[in-house]
Design a protein that fits this description.
Blueprint lengths: L1 H31 L4 H9 L3 H26 L7 H17 L4 H11 L5 H23 L2 H4 L5 H27 L7 H8 L7 H28 L6 H14 L11 H12 L4 H57 L1
Helix pairs in contact: 1-12, 2-13, 3-4, 3-10, 3-13, 4-5, 4-13, 5-6, 6-8, 6-9, 6-10, 6-11, 10-11, 11-12, 12-13
Length: 334
C-alpha cells in the first residue's frame, strides 16, 4: 500500500512539474512573441558597463550577507567560522545554478554535517532562512505598489496578502519554538522544532531578520543597477517590484538556475510597468546572468574541492573499515 502511495505521489509530482514547465514556456512565448530582435541588439549595445559590474559586486556581497545570516542562526550552539560558511554558501549556490531541484540545499546538509550540525537542524534553518528572507522582501515591497502609478489595483492586495502570510508564518514558527515542547510532538517533528532554537533568542532572531533584509536590499539594488545600465528609467520601487515577482516565480524550481521561471517573472513585472518587450528581455537575460554567473565562477571551484575531499574521505573510511575487518578476521583465525 505504501509503495502504491509513493508511486502515486511521484506521478503527481511529475505531472505538476510538466504542467508548470508548460505554463512557463507559454508565458515566455506570450511575452516574447512580438519582440523586435534589432531593438534587442541595440539595447545590449547601449548597455553601460560600470552599473553591470556594480550589480555583480552586489551579488557577491549578498552571498556574504547570507553567510552571515547562517552564522547568526547557527550560533552559539554551532560556532562555525564566517569564512567557512561563505565557502559553503558559494558552493551551495553553484550547485543550485547547475542542477535542478535545489541540489544546493542537499549539498548544504552534507557540508554542515561535517561541522556536527544535525540534519534536522539544517533542515529547520533552511526553512527559517527562506521565511526570514520572504519577510525581508515583504518589508521592502509592501510600499512599492503605492509608489508606482499605473499598476493594476489587484497588485496592492496581492502584495499585502503575501506580506501578511509571511508575517503570520514567522509568528507561528516563533510561537511553536517558544510554546511547544519537542517531546510532545511526533518523532519526525522533534528534530525540526529543536532546530528552531535560535527563535527563542529574540535578539538573535531580529539580528537574523535584519541580515536577511540587507540581503534582499542588495538584490534590489543590483536589479536597479541593471535597469540603469540598460537605460530603463524606473524608480528603485520598480526594482523591488521586479525582484518580488522574480522570487515569486522561482518558488518552483523546474530547471537549473531557475532558467525560464526567472525570465517569466521579470518579463511579467516589467510588462506591468510598461517597459518594451526588447528592453524587458534584455534586462531578464542580464540580471539572470548577473545572478548566476558569479555563483558558478566563484562557487564551482569550492564545490569541486569539497566533493573531492568527500570522495577522499569516503575512500579513507572504506580503507579503514577494510583494515578493521581484516584484523578481525585474523583474530578469529588465530
Amino acid at each position: 500500500m505504501s509503495g502504491h502511495r509513493t508511486d502515486l505521489k511521484r506521478r503527481l509530482g511529475i505531472a505538476f512539474r510538466v504542467a508548470f514547465i508548460a505554463a512557463t514556456v507559454t508565458a515566455l512565448w506570450w511575452f516574447l512573441r512580438g519582440i523586435d530582435l534589432k531593438a534587442l541588439v541595440e539595447t545590449f549595445h547601449r548597455a553601460m558597463l560600470w552599473p553591470l559590474v556594480l550589480a555583480a559586486l552586489l551579488n557577491i556581497g549578498s552571498h556574504c550577507v547570507r553567510a552571515e545570516g547562517w552564522r547568526v542562526m547557527l550560533g552559539p550552539r554551532h560556532r562555525i567560522p564566517f569564512g567557512r560558511l561563505l565557502r559553503y554558501e558559494l558552493a551551495a549556490q553553484a550547485a543550485s545554478a547547475i542542477s535542478p531541484a535545489r541540489a544546493g540545499e542537499v549539498l548544504r546538509f552534507w557540508l554542515l554535517r561535517q561541522d556536527a550540525v544535525p540534519a534536522a537542524t539544517t533542515g529547520a534553518l533552511i526553512v527559517l532562512k527562506k521565511v526570514l528572507g520572504a519577510v525581508g522582501l515583504a518589508v521592502l515591497v509592501t510600499a512599492a505598489p503605492w509608489l508606482l502609478p499605473g499598476l493594476p489595483h489587484w497588485i496592492r492586495g496581492f502584495v499585502a496578502v503575501f506580506a501578511a502570510l509571511m508575517v503570520i508564518e514567522l509568528v507561528t514558527l516563533v510561537f511553536v519554538a517558544h510554546r511547544v515542547a519537542p517531546d510532545k510532538l511526533p518523532k519526525f517533528l522533534r528534530g525540526v522544532v529543536g532546530g528552531m532554537y535560535f527563535l527563542r533568542d529574540s535578539r538573535r532572531m531580529f539580528r537574523a531578520l535584519a541580515v536577511m533584509l540587507v540581503g534582499e536590499a542588495a538584490d534590489a539594488a543590483a536589479a536597479g543597477a541593471v535597469l540603469y545600465a540598460l537605460g530603463i528609467d524606473l524608480p528603485i520601487a520598480a526594482a523591488v517590484m521586479v525582484l518580488f515577482f522574480i522570487d515569486f516565480s522561482n518558488m518552483m524550481p523546474i530547471a537549473p538556475g531557475h532558467l525560464g521561471t526567472f525570465e517569466a517573472g521579470a518579463l511579467y513585472s516589467l510588462n506591468l510597468l510598461h517597459v518594451s518587450p526588447d528592453a524587458a528581455f534584455a534586462f531578464a537575460l542580464l540580471f539572470h546572468a548577473q545572478q548566476v554567473l558569479p555563483q558558478i565562477v566563484v562557487g564551482l571551484p569550492f564545490e569541486l574541492r569539497l566533493l573531492v575531499r568527500r570522495q577522499r574521505g569516503d575512500a579513507a573510511a572504506l580503507a579503514e573499515e577494510g583494515e578493521h575487518t581484516g584484523a578481525g578476521q585474523r583474530r578469529s583465525a588465530d
